[in-house]
Sequence to fold (333 residues):
Amino acid sequence: MRFFLLFSLATLLSTPLQAEESDSNTPRIPVAELHLGDAIILGVIEGVTEFLPISSTGHLIIATHVLGLESETPLSNKNGQRLWYKKPSTSNPAGEPLTLKLAADTYTVVIQVGAILAVVLLYWNQLMSMMNGLLGRDSNGARLLQNVIYAFVPVAIVGFLGSKIIEKHLFSIDTVIIGLVGGAILMIVVERRRWRMARVVDGHKEPADLYPTEALKIGFIQCLALWPGTSRSMVTIVGGYLAGLNPAKAAEFSFLVGLPVLAGAAFLKGIRSGPAMIEVFGWSNVLVGVLVAGISAAVAVKFLVGFLTRHGLMAFALYRMVLAAIIAAFFYL
Fold:
């Protein structure tokens, strides 16, 4: 638990607060309330959906909408002074006011720290094998580390270069519906192909056995997950299928590749707007969200491996179709 809190603190306080400071002698009070129940709901949704192939981003966008955390009205402190995410400057005279939506968007990314730590604990042996491989003590771990890096680099580059455009233009209900349906179709096609290939493939291929070109292809496929509603877990598992991994091994590789992807996203978001989020919500419910996300992610990971081994991706594809229909009906009818 101590590591949990230290990692969260380090991520969120990587840079000085950009929002307008209040009197240093006055205790900082959140300017907008995030109820404990809301923090728990968002934590559960993040933890459960992060590693299931159903899109955590899509579910969280919907959840923040339902919970009323989408207001873009500029916030002020108790003295009526406007709070800034980015203060006016010569290059940006208008500045960027601090809003509830900005804080909520940051919150849903930062609580991924909990999901990260859940995978670290569950896959500690594999991580130690990769560490030993880095030190030249484990050839299998070295190959696994190499493949994780190859699968991480493409999405890291594209995500870093395009993150601001994605956040500005793609975080909407429409894009989530498109991502859910498109991802479901892809899953159905690939699942049917896997069942046909299972007749001629032994299914014992390990993530460490992937060729570098195969791992790199998984990395490029993972870039599709930058579209909200698609699911990073889903596209990585699909990529693993196409590379010859069985469902359980594809899921395991997805979890391992997800560690640097999620950590990088949480770190960048924490640097850019973590302090502003704390200005709005305060500390306690942020830490609650991280903790709840970690517990629920651990349960979800265990469930997913067993379920995929028995049933594959088809049930998740159908769930995505039904969810997309429900969302469309709820928001547009």
Summary: Residues 2-20+29-332 form one domain. The longest helix spans residues 247-281. DSSP finds 13 helices and two strands in the chain. The radius of gyration is 21 Å.
